[in-house]
Structure to design on (242 residues):
């Protein structure tokens, strides 16, 4: 007999990698009053609703047709807002699960009138899998993803072969994947995984160490600056879809 607890569970979506392990743990962070106001005031313009059964129509949500860049895990959104402003001709689809971070970016978008950002407060992996078709993205940014230092947590790292393959398939030919990290073992894993993906090619010439010079559009964060002064490294990786 069917266990009633499972009776209404939808059948697995053929072809979709059923993900068990999340790349984040939802932190209980306080949404400050300014962020709360930003949700109320600017949410209707900038927030998008996740719907697993609905494909995103970028022209409709941005109100124009422009290259589409997805950002995964924007944190408090400071770099995201700066990048969107130095690249006004691109549209930025930004995903973050941490509510205070979403509030912070909403505040920046509303106060600085940044028209080329839209935000999903949702797991980016699900947005990618369910709302975006293959070959729909011109670029993907993943800056300082959680390094999950402990070996038993490595399975939570976002950058792993199967996910990178899905990212690559969602890029248009010529589209790029830009990653950055300040954790050397993760940088090495990123380089290994991206180099092993047949759909991707490294933009950094062979014969070098494989890491890219920091592209000008990515601002140095305060945290990164402090680390650099202490002699800590930061590694950028820029690959393109063949
Ligand atoms: C270490 S923080 C870095 C934030 C920001 N990119 C920066 O450079 O400051 C990583 C962020 O990724 C978010 N994150 C992790 N996995 C995610 C996912 N699957 N979808 C959306 N956000 C995710 C986390 O909530 C966290 O805020």
């Amino acid at each position: 007999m069917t266990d009633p607890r499972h009776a209404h569970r939808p059948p697995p979506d053929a072809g979709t990698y059923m993900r068990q392990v999340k790349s984040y743990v939802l932190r209980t962070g306080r949404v400050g009053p300014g962020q709360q106001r930003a949700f109320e005031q600017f949410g209707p313009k900038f927030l998008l609703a996740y719907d697993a059964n609905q494909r995103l129509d970028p022209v409709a949500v941005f109100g124009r047709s422009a290259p589409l860049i997805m950002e995964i895990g924007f944190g408090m959104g400071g770099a995201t807002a700066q990048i969107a402003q130095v690249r006004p001709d691109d549209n930025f689809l930004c995903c973050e699960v941490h509510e205070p971070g979403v509030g912070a970016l909403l505040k920046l978008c509303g106060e600085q009138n940044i028209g080329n950002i839209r935000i999903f407060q949702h797991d980016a992996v699900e947005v990618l899998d369910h709302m975006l078709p293959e070959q729909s993205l011109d670029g993907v940014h993943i800056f300082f993803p959680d390094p999950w230092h402990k070996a038993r947590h490595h399975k939570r790292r976002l950058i792993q072969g199967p996910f990178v393959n899905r990212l690559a398939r969602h890029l248009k030919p010529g589209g790029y994947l830009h990653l950055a990290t300040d954790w050397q073992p993760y940088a090495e894993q990123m380089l290994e995984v991206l180099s092993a993906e047949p759909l991707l090619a490294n933009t950094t010439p062979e014969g070098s160490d494989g890491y890219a010079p920091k592209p000008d559009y990515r601002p140095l964060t305060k945290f990164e600056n402090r680390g650099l002064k202490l002699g800590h490294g930061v590694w950028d990786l820029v690959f393109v879809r063949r």
